[in-house]
Amino acid sequence: MTALRWLPFLLGGFPGVLLANEDFAFFESKVRPLLVERCYECHSHEKKIKGGLALDSREGWVKGGDTGAAIVPGKPGESLVMQAVSWSDPDLTMPPKKKLSATELGILTEWIQRGAPDPRTAAPAGKKLAGMSLEAARSYWAFQPVAKPAVPASSASHPIDAFVQARLAQENLSPSSAADPRTLIRRVYFDLIGLPPTYEEVAAFAATPTPEAFARVVDQLLARPEYGQRWGRHWLDVARYADTTEKSTDGERRIPFAHTYRDYVVEAFNADKPFDRFILEQLAADRLPAAEKPDLRALGFLTVGRRFEGNAEAPQLIIDDQIDVIGRGFLGLTLACARCHDHKFDAIPTADYYSLYGILASSTEPLDRPEIGQAPKDPAVEKYREKRAELFEDYEEHIDTCTTKAYRLLRELAPEYLRYLVESSPNHRTVEGFIPLDTPRGLLVHGGAPRWEAAIEWTIKQGDPFFALWKRLLALPRADFAALAADVLAEDSGTPMDADPEVLARLQAKPPQSMLDVAEAYGEALQKNAALAARLNRPDSPLQFSREEIRADLLRFITEHQLVSRPDGEAAGKIREKITVLEATAPVERASVVTVSPQLCDPHVLIRGDRQKPGAAVPRRFLQVLASIDARSYADDGRLEIARAIANPGNPLTARVIVNRVWQQHFGTGLVATPDNFGVMGEKPSHPELLDHLATWFFAHGNSLKALNRYILTSTTWQQSSAPQSAALEKDPANRLLWRMSPRRLEFEPLRDAVLQVADRLDVRAGGRSAPLKDQNFRRALYGYTDRFRVPALLRNFDVANPDTSISHRAETIHPLQALFFLNSPFIRTQAETIAKRPEIAHLHEVPEQIRALYRRVLARQPDAEEMSLATEYLGPAPDARAWANFTQALLLSNEFTFCD
Asked: Shortest CA distance to 302 belongs to which of 290, 278, 319?
């Protein structure tokens, strides 16, 4: 098809082609926990099935309930479940006691819009689905050690070709012939740098298209700074990169220095940083020895995700997001699916999830980010630093105030905490799940009672008699407490050294009828005993708060303990907001880092993911299924240890996952078609021996991504033509056997950049803050402002990665809105006018010469006879500027420009 024969197809629209996405992962991490928590009580086989509707299996909602079909896949508005949970019908409200939140409604809506994907294939009938056992996992392909397979005997000189051709031969298929030089040179330019070659570069290669000449082109492109920009974008999709948090009611939503992580990734690819080092820095740069000069910007991998503003479970959800991106990004495992239950398919028990949770919850994101690089000598820098110092001084003073207040309130609320200790003791519990501190001043709900329990033991070990009597009375049974306590008090009346005189006097004056009366007496004595207050104010007292504890609590990042009052927390938030606004336009660069928390998290399994329902304690450790790599329990936070375990050459997943990702970018589909799911629900590798060959080759060549790119590109498999073969199409329409190169639509970034390049307007400057991709922003699309909450319609139409989650493979759709952008966009029109006015085109005197010049500029080739005839007919003998712009725009819209063969 010639370049001008695109129009009927564009105007009529192409059939949609949407590749498989992360639907099952979305169900497991978002939908299933919601159904378990809010729906199973009334609609599951294990509990009850009201209205005939079971929601604990796919079969259940497909069958529907007494009132009809529950869910219409793809149509939330027509789904009875959505009508019920939105409470739009007063006669149909589910759950009946508490309406779903807006976030929960959004999850169900998105799930149904996705077509209600549900991997639960059978009704439970009272039986719990069991995932892969740890024993079974030892024989599963993805967990097998990476072995170096023998290269098949073949006439091919390149090992990759030998593996591919051996597989084709098994199916009686053969590879395609080599692509022509022009196609090949354009393909490698877009693959490596995301930009088209010039006419002169194409002509130079076409004149001598030897393997040596092609290898030189590959090396030249790998050495260009544009390589890191192109390949860095691929990793940023995986890392769910964005410049902002999600929706916020007010204030600054930018992540102030997110762009420094983006720049780190680009520079890492350009410097060919070994991939194992790339892993270590992104997970634990702050824990690496200073002598190794770790790049702290890499920690943005952990900090550029969602913040879940306004959600009470934000600290837990942030860690869940980090576990998800680590699992899918590096290991090809959907670890987040084990948050509420053992993984339904893979050998990942819930205990493993919370072991990782404990590791990540033992880190915090500091407010004071380290400055990096050399700041310019500028008055604006000094002014910024002065203002910043003032705000941080205000914040430190606020921490001091909160620290003092926390200790004071802990003593003032002593009666409530002592009653809590009574109610939570086995001997005296009267109400199951009793929660005290329901007064307006009940501020230390989670942190106070354990501190008082520790303080009681501490005073006794110090030889202080104050709590000696407390322990004796607490040990008494609840039955006959009054009589038994009277005997104890009568004993102690003659031995004052075993009991505090003031407490003893109170209890004798008003004999206690229960242990709660003892708590009241002790509480009153504590509030009035100045000498005891002084003893409890010692630095080593369990009642003391460190400034770092208060600092962590104010940040509300990892802590689950409320050590400060809501007003104090809000006041701290306002200061942080001012700092964020200042940093968002700072004239210096800083790294968004994490650091080890002053108090490590000792994790417990949370039953059904509910933070109010702690279960068994688990150690901080690596995955049990990979215990052969590292089976230790970590005494420290463990973040560096899991980074090393992931990067370990003996890890069977990491190398397979990354070489598969690289293969995917070159061929459109990975050898494993589900690049972030190597588990049971993922696809099996199409060429398992080739996958392991690439993994061992990658190890042997220093974890070099540039070397791996070069290795793949110099194979004849990658250099094949995209021309179809009828027999192969019938047998393998998806081209999983690699009998040709599959044609692909250019992604948004290289497509936009290519338009600007042929207009000679592309700004190739590297690094710096992101800016919206408005008409006058001519930088590479990589540097566009990525707003997590307001993704522009243009980017959505061209399938740009959703920054809310790790994206392993962008959807690839072809639809009329894309063509209409090229037809109607002022941006495209302006570039078309600019190209047509370029001197080497506009200054030519003959229309045919101008046509040829335009073809050379836009398509990097000469037009053929048919194209010359069509163009001449359209333009006429004396075309005006509008006609030339129309013709140039037509070339930009052509399949030849927007696709890569």
From this structure: 319
Half-sphere exposure of 592 (CA within 13 A, CB side): 25
Residue with tokens 């053929």: 864
Q: Do 100 and 38 form a contact (C-beta atoms < 8 A)? A: yes
Query: Checking DSSP bridges between strand 604-606 and strand 614-617, what pairing results, if any?
Result: antiparallel
Q: 860: pLDDT confidence band, cut at 50, 70 and 90? A: very high
Phi, psi of 523 (to 5 degrees): -60, -40
How far, in whole angstroms, is CA 362 from its chain's centroid?
18
Per-domain boundaries in the chain: 23-129, 235-366+601-647, 823-900
Read off the pTM.
Answer: 0.83
Asked if residue 145 lies in contact with residue 652, where contact means CB atoms within 8 angstroms, the answer is yes
Q: Which two tokens stand for residue 89?
A: 């019908």
**Cα-trace Rg, the chain:** 33
Q: Which tens digits make up the pLDDT trace of 788-803?
A: 888 888 898 899 999 9
Residue 225: phi, psi to the nearest 5? -65, -25
Helix (H) or strand (E) holding 359: helix 350-360
Distances in whole angstroms, Cα of residue 244 to Cα of each of 438, 479, 791, 805: 37, 60, 11, 13
Contacts 24+ apart (CB under 8 A), 866-871: 866/2, 867/2, 867/3, 867/4, 870/2, 870/4, 871/4
d(CA 847, CA 872): 8
Alpha-carbon distance of 4 to 10, in angstroms, equals: 11
Distance of alpha carbon 555 from alpha carbon 41, whole angstroms: 35
Q: Show Cβ contacts of residue 615 under 8 Å, excluding neighbours closer than 6 positions.
A: 604, 605, 606, 607
